[in-house]
Amino acid sequence: MGKTKTVSVRFSEVEMFELQREVERLQLNFSTYIRSSVLMRLNGQLIDKEVSETEMQRRNVALRRLDKETF
Q: Which domain range does residue 41 map to?
């Protein structure tokens, strides 16, 4: 794998509260959560909320059409 690098990141108090809540919910330590989130993003497994919501709306419309055609 090679050498590793340490990165410093700043979060607001509100962001820290939300991050800490999620870390506790998932029972992870903070650095593991941050690292896995970044790696998921780089691999395309983590997408923007807006993109996800748009895709869900598109799928819901398609499913409703199928329901109307089927039933």
A: 13-70
